[in-house]
Amino acid sequence: MAELGLRERKKQETRRRITEAAIELFAERGFEQVPVADIAVAADVSTATVFNYFPAKEDLIYDGMAAFNEHLLAAVRDRPAGQRVVSAFREYVVQPRGVLADPTSPVLAGLSRIARIVQDSPSLQARERLEADRAVAALRDLLHDELGDDLRSWTVASALVGTTRGMTREVQRAAAEGRVDARLSERLLASAAAAIDVIQVGLAEATKPHR
Q1: What is the distance between the alpha carbons of residues 46 and 114, in angstroms, rounded to a whole number?
Q2: Average pLDDT over residues 50-64
Q3: Which candidate, 169, 136, 131, places its Cα nearest to that of 155?
Q4: Could you tell me which of 17, 38, 25 has the C-alpha nearest to residue 113?
Q5: Quick one: 13 exposed, middle or buried, by C-beta within 10 A (0-12, 13-18, 19+)?
Q6: H-helix segments, 44-181
Q7: 76 and 91 in contact (C-beta within 8 Å)?
Q8: In angstroms, rounded to a whole number, what is the distance separating the alpha carbons of residues 118 and 161?
């Protein structure tokens, strides 16, 4: 067990080194101008090792977003019997996570840099849209079982994913301005809850039987 623990720590350290080297280079030159081979040299690993940890260069930025979406969708799929999709989505999203749970997290320092890197990169913006589209499609499928209407399911799924994307944007702006603290966490989570409540109320109204 101790050997497994050591191996895992080494893997985490390698992953951290690769990510930090990549972000430093992306910030200096721009995402499109940095080949993976240069990241490998800066992180003191082989190019093959970089691809073992991050199969696509965009994963160096969006690995965390993809993981969040996967965990969110898993929570919705595994919701208790009788709980609605929107309710399960809300329950997961309003729980403090990442820098919203810990405003002193070292991750915070890199958020504003990442936001600028993405802003200047068409490839990363396209990847962000792809991740959002994947989340919308998965939620649409789950909602379809409840709503039985493709357009309605797409609309609700898009609005829900828009809530999490809006939260990400606000955290990035706050990080750039140095104002991530407990008050931001409380305000942002409350705003997310209120936004999802609007969706729930609208959905309930739309599905009422008409007289």
Answers
A1: 24
A2: 93
A3: 136
A4: 25
A5: exposed
A6: 47-53, 59-77, 85-93, 108-119, 122-147, 150-176
A7: no
A8: 19
The answer to whether the beta carbons of residues 192 and 167 sit under 8 Å apart is yes
Tokens of 86: 């929107």
Surface-to-core class of residue 152, CB atoms within 10 Å of its CB (0-12 exposed, 13-18 middle, 19+ buried):
middle
User: Which residue has 């720590």 as its token pair?
Assistant: 9
C-alpha dihedral (171, 177, 183, 189), degrees to nearest 10: -20
CA distance 62 to 137: 18
Domains of the chain, start order: 1-56 (1.10.10.60), 58-206 (1.10.357)
Average pLDDT over residues 142-147: 90
Phi, psi for residue 140 in degrees, rounded to 5: -55, -45
189 pLDDT above the threshold of 90: yes
The identity of residue 78, as a single letter, is: D
pTM: 0.83
H-helix or E-strand spanning residue 192: helix 182-206
Residues recorded for the chain? 211
Tokens of residue 57, six digits = 């260069």
